[in-house]
Amino acid sequence: MSQSQRPANPSAAEAAAAAGAVAAAAAGAPLGAGRAAVGTRLDPWLSSYAERTRSMTASEIRALFAVANRPEVVSLAGGMPYLPALPLDVIAGIAQRLIAERGAVALQYGSGQGEEVLREQIVQVMREQQIHASPEDVVVTTGSQQALDLVARVFLDPGDVVVAEAPSYVGALNVFRSYQADVVHVPLDADGLQPQALEEALVALEAAGRRAKFLYTVPNHHNPAGVTLSAARRPQVLEVARRHGLLVLEDDPYALLGFDGDPLPAMRSLDADGVIHLGSFSKTLAPGFRLGWAVAPHAVREKLVMAAEASVLCPTSFGQLAVAEYLSTYDWKGQVKTFRELYRERRDATLQALATHLPMTTWTQPKGGFYVWVTLPEGLDATAMLPRAVTARVAYVPGTAFYADDQGRQHLRLSYCFPTAERIQEGVRRLAGVVQAELET
Ligand code: PMP
C-alpha cells in the first residue's frame, strides 16, 4: 500500500491522545472562572461535568495532527502497526468460517474474564517471555488500554500517587489523569528505569507522608523512549518495589518485537505476586481486534474482572474467537518475525537518517518496537516547533505529551513503524531543515 492510499486518519487514536496530553500540559491551569463563563454559552452542561473531566481538553495540536495525516506530510507521529504486512486472506477466511459455522456463539455475549480458548492461547504467547501462568490467571481486555483503565479504576482514588517513568506512554498518563492521580516521574536512561532513582523517589514520597499505589513501567522497547530495561536492572527494580510495598504494573505490548534475539524475561516471570502484567495483540497482530490482557495476583484479578464487567460486560466474542483460531491454526510466530524484520529495516533507516541529517541532535538506540526519542539542541522547543514542522510536511509527537508535568520541551518522539524507509529518510531530512532554521533564528 502506498502512502497516498493510507487511511484518511491513520494515527488518530495515538495522536489524539497525545494532543489531549499536550493541551493539558500546555494549558497548565485547570479551567478558570473566566473560561467557564465563556464555556457556559458554548456548552450548557459545563457545570454538570465531573471533576475528572477537567483534564480532558482539546488542543490546537489536535488540529495540527488532522493536517499531518494528509498524504503529502510524512507522519512520524502515530504508532500505527504496518498492517499491509498481515495475511489478510487468512484472517478473512477465519472470520468467514467463524460466522458461517459458529455465528450464534461468536456473536453472543461471553464471559467477563474472556473466552477460555483465547486465554489458553495467551498463556502460550506469554511463554515467550518466560511467564508461567494458567488460563484462570488471565483477564482478556479491550486492548491493553482498557486494562490500564481497569487497573486505575481498581486502585486509584483522587490524589493517589502513581510512579511512572519520565517519559511515559501518553495513553497511560491520560488514564491516571482521568482518575485524578498524581504522577511522580522517575528518570530512565539507555538501560531503562533507574532503580536508584526509584528508591529515592519512594523515600521522598514516604518522607512526605505519601505512598505510591503502583509503579507504571514499559520495560521493553519503551513508548516513547525506545529503550529496554536491562536484564540486570529487572530484579533490582523489583527488589526496590518489594521493599517499599509497591505493586508493579508492567505494560508490555512490544515484548515480542525485539530485533536482537529472544525477549528478556518479563518482570512478571520474576515476581508473580508483585506484578500485574499487561499484554496486547495490537502490535503482533492487529489493533483493530482491540484485544489485550492482564495477568494479576489472584485477588487483584477478581477485582479486574468485576471492573471489566461494569465497563464492557465482556470483550468482543467474535474477535476473541477469531484471534484464538488464528493463533492455533496459523504460523503466528512467523508473522511476528515478518513484522520484526520490517520494523528493523525502518529502525535502521531512521537511525541512519538521523546520523546523516540531524547530527546536532541526540537520540536513543531502540532494539525493538516502534519509537526513537530525539533530544534537540539546548534552547529548542519541540512543541513550539511542531506547526513549522507540519508546514515543512513532517510530523512528530512533541515530548511534552509524555510527561504529567511541564517537562519534555526539548524532546520529540519519532515513530518508524508505518512509513517506508524512503519516506522516513525524506521525513527526517525535512525535520532537519526545520531544526536548522530554528537554530538560525
Ligand atoms: N501501552 C503502550 C505502551 C502502548 O504503546 C499502547 C499503544 N500505543 C497501549 C498500551 C495500548 O495498546 P492497545 O490498547 O491497542 O493494546
UniProtKB/TrEMBL annotation:
InterPro entries recorded: Aminotransferase_I/II_large (IPR004839), Class-I_PLP-dep_aminotransf (IPR050859), PyrdxlP-dep_Trfase (IPR015424), PyrdxlP-dep_Trfase_major (IPR015421), PyrdxlP-dep_Trfase_small (IPR015422)
The name this protein goes by in its record: DNA-binding transcriptional MocR family regulator
BP-aspect Gene Ontology terms: alpha-amino acid metabolic process
GO molecular function terms attached to this record: DNA binding; pyridoxal phosphate binding; transaminase activity
SUPFAM superfamilies the record matches: PLP-dependent transferases (SSF53383)
Record's keyword terms, sorted: Aminotransferase, DNA-binding, Pyridoxal phosphate, Transferase
Ranges where the Aminotransferase class I/classII large domain occurs: 94-431
Needed cofactors: pyridoxal 5'-phosphate
Phylogenetic lineage: Bacteria, Bacillati, Actinomycetota, Actinomycetes, Kineosporiales
Lineage: superkingdom: Bacteria
Pfam families: Aminotran_1_2
PANTHER family: AMINOTRANSFERASE, KYNURENINE_ALPHA-AMINOADIPATE AMINOTRANSFERASE, MITOCHONDRIAL
Keyword DNA-binding: yes
Subunit organization: Homodimer.
